[in-house]
Batch of 2 targets.
Target 1
Amino acid sequence: GDSVTQMEGPVTLSEEAFLTINCTYTATGYPSLFWYVQYPGEGLQLLLKATKADDKGSNKGFEATYRKETTSFHLEKGSVQVSDSAVYFCALSNSQGGSEKLVFGKGTKLTVNP
Amino acid sequence: GAGVSQTPSNKVTEKGKYVELRCDPISGHTALYWYRQSLGQGPEFLIYFQGTGAADDSGLPNDRFFAVRPEGSVSTLKIQRTERGDSAVYLCASSLSLSGQEETQYFGPGTRLLVL
């Protein structure tokens, strides 16, 4: 079945550091790819998405490019802030099965220190 | 409110008891999803409703779990004979689900279930 593998955490960075969180996937067909974020004490929120190969999703300074050749959707940010501290989840949705359920990775906890 | 709401926010029960968890989706959203998130893990899909019908229940772990959405809006997840392993955060999400389009799922805050 479809699956998502993301970089194990936790990740600890200093403010203004460069962030990469790796995500690879296994799926039949052409899934849509997502990054969700869970801030402390809050619910899951969509951060960005890409629905076809070579698409780049971006939001709040975060970016991720849908790479079909490497089945990857790595999350990047050039300069992190303390407020980016959260748990980040990579996910896919594959409508081929008739359901747009999300398949999530295990999550990566990011802590940004001032 | 404007978002997905879930009640109760916390539920503590004893092994063997029956529980009901409620989800109130965003108004007008036809698709509704239930997920379960165990500690340190990503959410896992349980069941998906399109309108009143369960379009995909392949994630329900066993027949102790059941969900309904009788009027195509509010949904209730029901767990019979609860076990300690059912302890988790149960998340609900909804989306517009327009035909042929990938729609964003909006998540509620979750119900934290603890089975003693």
Note: Residues 67 and 113 of chain A are 31 Å apart (CA to CA).
Target 2
Amino acid sequence: GAGVSQSPRYKVAKRGQDVALRCDPISGHVSLFWYQQALGQGPEFLTYFQNEAQLDKSGLPSDRFFAERPEGSVSTLKIQRTQQEDSAVYLCASSPPSGRWTDTQYFGPGTRLTVL
Amino acid sequence: QKEVEQNSGPLSVPEGAIASLNCTYSDRGSQSFFWYRQYSGKSPELIMSIYSNGDKEDGRFTAQLNKASQYVSLLIRDSQPSDSATYLCAVLFGNEKLTFGTGTRLTIIP
């Protein structure tokens, strides 16, 4: 079946612009995670949804970052007034219905954001 | 501060040899440990998970966990050029978010 998909795959924004990154999880997956991966680093947790509920947003670096999953499937990560330090690959992952952290997380291909 | 430490490499291993990747973590109470493989420009892919002290084998891969030493390793036997990638160690601290190390870049030399 289809895996996690993300769009756009690449995004170039001018400093100060707002961007929206989309994630389509695997059908039926309850849990959805957003990570930020800077060049040469491991993924850093941003936020976690179980169905439509955002259970943990402790990793969001500032109030310019906002995520939603209104119907418990597709999720959008929005970054307002982008800064150069926001340049990174944004990864989305989903995991199966039990919703436990120990479940395998399946990653999407990521969106590479470049802020000029 | 929950931390996961890995040697960033690069680690070069001849084809057919054993590649050994190491990871240490800061929280003695951690219970769940994962190894992800990430090819350049691609997303992470889970290759092994381990929860108990000792060894866990899956094909050419063996994960080793020593909770007393707060140490987890991944061995790759009969290394192939297709194993060349960055290997990310990830630790689940309590019931919270997954914390990744910076990854070790592995190159298998034909």
Note: Chain A touches chain B through 21 residues (CB under 8 Å).
